[in-house]
Amino acid sequence: MPQMNGFEVAKQVYKDEFIDNSISERKIEIKIFSDNHSKTIEVSDNAGGIPENIIENIFNANFTTKNEDKGTGIGLYLSNQIATKYISYRVES
Q1: Could you count the other beta carbons within 10 Å of the beta carbon of residue 7?
Q2: How far apart are CA 34 and CA 10, in angstroms?
Q3: Do 81 and 91 form a contact (C-beta atoms < 8 A)?
Q4: FRET pair for 41, CA 20 to 30 Å: which of 34, 66, 83, 92?
Q5: Could you give the 3-state DSSP secondary structure of residue 83?
Q6: What confidence tens digit (pLDDT) does each residue in 18-42 have?
């Protein structure tokens, strides 16, 4: 399996969601805020969102909304673990 960096993974995830939801006019918005105490990155899109009943689970290991042939449920979990350990950040959904 080829190695992919974070941008490539994110691009593929968004591509899958836009295709799965039949969205032809694709939009991804990234906002960056900063103050004396913190930095915030907000990412939003028009790919359909994350259902409220699963949003608390998306960073759990082996949790996926995709079919077994498309997702392992490890990508967001690992991203969260790495960022928490090395960047000292917090995820809010």
Answers
A1: 8
A2: 23
A3: no
A4: 66
A5: helix
A6: 777 788 888 888 888 898 888 888 8
